[in-house]
Amino acid sequence: MKNNTFLVFLVFLLGIGTSEFFGQNATNSSSEIKKLIAKKRSFNSTYGYGYRIQIYYGNETNARSIQSKFKVTYPGEFTKLEYDKPDWKVLVGNYKTKLEADKAVINFSEKFSGLIVIPLGK
Question: pTM value?
Answer without folding.
Answer: 0.61
